[in-house]
Specification:
Elements lengths: L12 H4 L3 H10 E2 L2 E2 L8 H17 L3 H5 L2
Antiparallel strand pairs: 1-2
Helix pairs in contact: 2-3
């Protein structure tokens, strides 16, 4: 059998509770199965724009936990 591991969703209830600085670090440096995007998003202003977009998605989309029945 072939198993694909995917990083946890940043739309989960747990991720919604993360502080902005922690999410910023995840996006820039990565963690675990999620690689960082710091080398592709060079300007700090653009990195924070990604954070603002992520927070917008977290406010407007349902939790990934709800989709999984958790």
């Amino acid at each position: 059998p072939y198993f694909v591991l995917t990083p946890p969703s940043l739309l989960s209830d747990k991720a919604r509770g993360f502080k902005d600085g922690y999410l910023y670090h995840l996006v820039v440096m990565g963690r675990g199965m999620m690689s960082g995007y710091g080398s592709q998003i060079m300007k700090e202003r653009d990195r924070w724009a990604v954070m603002n977009y992520l927070r917008h998605l977290q406010k407007t989309l349902p939790s990934s936990n709800a989709a999984q029945g958790n």
